[in-house]
Amino acid sequence: MSDETKDQKKKTRKKVREQTVKDRNETMTKKSRKPSSSLPNDEAMEERSRNARERSARNFIPYVIEGKPDFQLELKEGELLPILAVRNMVLFPGAIVPITVARSKSLKLIHAVYESDGALGVIAQRDAQVDNPSMDDLYSVGTVAHIVRLLDGEEGTKTVILEGKHKIELKDLPSTRPYLQGVVETLHESVPDESDREFAATMELVKETAMKIVKMHGPIPQEITFALKNLMTSEGLVNYICGNFGIETSEKQRLLSLDVKERATYLLSVLMKEMDEDRLKMEIINRAKSEMDEQQRNYFLQQQIRAIQDELGDSSQNDIEKYYERARLKQEKWPESVKTVFNNVMHRLERLNPSSPDYNVECNYVETILNMPIGEFTEDSFDLIKVQKQLDKDHFGLEKVKERILEHLAVLKLKRDKGEEMKAPILCLYGPPGVGKTSLGRSIADALGRRYVRVSLGGLHDEAEIRGHRRTYIGAMPGRIVQSLIKAKSSNPVFVLDELDKITGAGVNGDPSSAMLEVLDPEQNKAFHDNFLDMDVDLSNVMFIATANNIGSIPRPLLDRMELIEVSGYVEEEKVKIAQKYLLPKELKENGLEKDDMRLAKDVLPALIESYTRESGVRELQRKIGKMARKIAYQVSRNGSSEYGLIHANDLATLLGPKEYSHERAENEKYFGVVTGLAWTAVGGEILFVESSKNKVKTGGKLSMTGNLGDVMKESAALAYEYIKSHTDQLNLDPDIIDQHNVHIHVPDGAIPKDGPSAGITIVTSLVSTLAERKVRTHFAMTGEITLRGKVMPVGGIKEKILAAKRAGITDLILCKENEKDIKEIQPLYLKGLSFHYVSDVLEVLDLALEKK
Prior knowledge:
By secondary structure, the protein is of the alpha/beta class. Helices cover 45% and strands 16% of the residues.
């Protein structure tokens, strides 16, 4: 074939393509536009034609030319085909589509091909972000295309209208300059004939599904309807749907690589999946629209109600608006459960008549929810050195408590650094009054940087005080726990539950101590239920510190949920330091005195502690110092200065009156049967004297007891008496002495109740001293329980008893062997000047305590 013949054929094909596009655009223009009334008829037709051509170039609607392609790629050996890499689109055979070209290499390629009226390969990129694609960045299957028209675009771009011809496979990409050129191979597609019923059915389903998808997206565009109805060949219909429906590029590329029958089958599955997704989206949209319509309806009704209420002068709506405004500031921190409860109550409140009794009840409930510090926390101070200094500054001693607080803070810091949840500890500080248990809670709060709340539980007898009252009751209100959280304005305060042992037991109003189980259980208080709120309150971040004087009166289940820390009494040396460092400066400040107005000599505080106080703590000592300060303040106010330059111990009688206490001293060196015992009381340790006497009878000696003794102490006396009766030989007693004498046991201070088993060895020693007429050694005291076999058992309150012994001038203490471990835990300061004798049998006690005849 001559070169002239080839050129003639190219010109003919180009004219046919241009005429096809021109006719199609003019047809669409006639359907979519009406003639302009301002122009003559012929001119109007020409104007419409020109506008249609321009619009087609700008907004080209993809189309498919049916029938076999009028072109087959013919390349000479070694000849390369220009390759146009396209992003996010796939060109199918027969399709006519516009493409905007902006890359320099692509622009050079388009101009070269358009000038030579040649062919090019259109192949999609795997990654649309790549600007200079290589062989690995392109799919292997593409389409040979001819350029129908080339139009100028914006900012140096070109819009090229391409007509796909047939499929090719890219084998290699040897050249990338001045544009991509590759080695390709023509791929021939097999089209099923009309007798293939399966293929025909598949095509019907494809067409129906495509129409349904188009309808689901709203009004059907005229061009798409025209194409779906008028494309006669199966190949043309499949290629049109593949190229023009919203299918992912990777899926389009897979469709292109398949034959027509396989393409139709796979296209059907893709369309079915898209239709299901569209149906689901439409359901969601319709449901959301329905909810929106309902919300809008409610909004308009509410606005009408507000307008009516404004006309009537009703101010209740202003309250509701204020509630919503306050809630908007807090709802970001609220969990969904709280939001749901609040919204339900507000909807109910909006429907209530302000004059209804329920209106005020609901308003009170809403106020409570809004005042709750849900999700509001103060930041903890994790400077352990600073915390320790703060604790040492506020309290003297109390090393165990301080150590436990520092341990908690250290663990809290490590947990926070790891992003883990930390449960706050529940501590119970127990010990005598006045030792600083309650004030320690405020010091801990200050050290941690937390809010401080104190709840006094003394005399609490109603369970509703803890859990709150249900809103159906008149005057219902939350329990003390929730009220205290509202007061603290924080969800992680330090909570001091004062006088936990003073809670009244179960009664007609329930058992308050049982209600405290949920509060003080780390596994349960994350969801504490208050009856008034009727929803769970998270208490897991609250640091609970309970205080008690006597843990024996606290129910065992409640005691088991807390970590017990004993806060024992102070020795005289500690009281002197506490008075100098804390009490004296505090009283001077409270009474308006300067430091020089009231100066104390070194002997004042020891004399004050010994002669004017009898306590384990320092509360009475503070009152005495305050009384002295008031006396001095009166003198300064009246005379301008104090009469005392430096206060000495001799001045105490003038300032405070005669001595109030003279601590009893051991007087057992003068009498038989007088033994010094040690006792624990709620106000600390005390010494007690056990006295016994005998009087001769003819026969049938009896035991009698006086001194307001409790049942346990009476049992100890009976045990001691029976032990002596059965062990007269070991005790070197006359066997008939018991029958010939009545024995009387008395414990002085008869107005004070006394009970407990710790006086067992004291009673035995007193009885043997009386019956054997052997005096008790001086400065000896003892404590311990006995058994019927004469074994000595351990007792508690050792530290308090040691303090009492030191005050009474005792130098030797007899204790059970098993109490030796308690002595090792006491600081050496408390043990100074004392000797301890450990025993395990009554006979050892008697050998140590009684003098020889």
